[in-house]
Task: structure prediction
Amino acid sequence: MLRAIGVASFEELLGAIPQQIRCAGELSLPPGFSELEVVQEVTALARENGGPDRLISFLGGGAYDHFVPGVVDQLLTRSEFYTAYTPYQAEVSQGTLASIFEFQTLICQLTQMEVANASVYDAASGMGEAALMAHAITGRRELVVAGTVHPAYLQVLRTYTGSLGLKVKVVPPREGMMDPAALKGVVGDETAGVFLQHPNFFGILEPQAETIEIAHQAGALAVVCVDPISLGLLKPPGQMDADIVLGEGQALGNPTNFGGPLLGFFACKRKLIRRMPGRLVGETTDRQGRRGFVLTLQTREQHIRREKATSNICTNHALNALAAAMYLSLMGREGFRQVAELCLQKSHYAQEGICRLPGFKLRFERPFFKEFAVQVPVPPGQIIQELASEGFLPGVDLGQFGLGLDLDDCLLVAVTEKRTKEQIDHLTAHLQKFAR
Result:
């Protein structure tokens, strides 16, 4: 096998993995446990992480602690959903296909786009897929990305496009947001797509309409990554003429689960549907005229010749997507709007309280939704470590991302509808001891 692919040794295949994180020699594993012993061990480990009643989370940066109605878990863990396998045989998978169809419909309603797929793995993979889609549709070889896009999403986009030799241009932000003037200077005849996150990685609202217009003037596709909860208040990208809309759907009925699994949603204009990645469930009728569902437009690598495939995503996060569909159905339009309003109001209340403390300052004086960057008078890591022992996860240390914006003294704080006034006030009180 090594000879066939032109590699001298197995170790050469591991070249991309840094030496310091490789496993040297055999794994030092304990002897096997019985089921009871495993349950006891895992329970003890979980207790070290701190239960949800002990740790109050203000973490954000892509995964958020939103309220999940109890009925979601009750329905989601029914064996019909929880153990269902991939629905290739439509005649025996109508329930699963129907639930995916409902998810697609709800995402279209939420984003105001014409068509949505059955979901992708997360927002990061969705952005990579959107890059490949933009290149395939336009034939162009440059991608322009706002510097305020989540750094992990940008990294995945680079990974997706690197082997194709596509050029990724990052537009440096101005005061925490996209600079339309700088964007105009970067977009050109070879631009396949312009990528924007709204609200962006710092929680700030971007000039969405202006960015989309600049992309279209250059003949490029406009790709917008959105926080779905924000669409309870903000104009959806479909109304702004975006070509592709994607986002992280974890906030819709899925707990944070220590960082995964996540849920990527992906939608586009109808005219672009044949280049859309992943699977799509369509509605049809049988010979008796009865409504039914099938997988359609299956232009993926296991169905057609590899070079004609739109994507190698062959499945979807069906259980997470089902949770999102349940959540959206349960919340309804008014409930969903109320969640967004609470996030907006509570985050601004928290920001005002924190920034009244000496030495604490809002990093970017821009409108934000539920997340904000605050400069702190001591290293953010110190605050995070000390407040964890007090029962708080106060935010994300922005210095770890190396964004080139001098953010080593900044904490990214997210406030969802779950946080109470008392919890926010307690966080502010605990931060008081770091005031300078």
The chain has two domains: 56-69+332-434, 72-326. The CA atoms of residues 213 and 222 lie 8 Å apart.
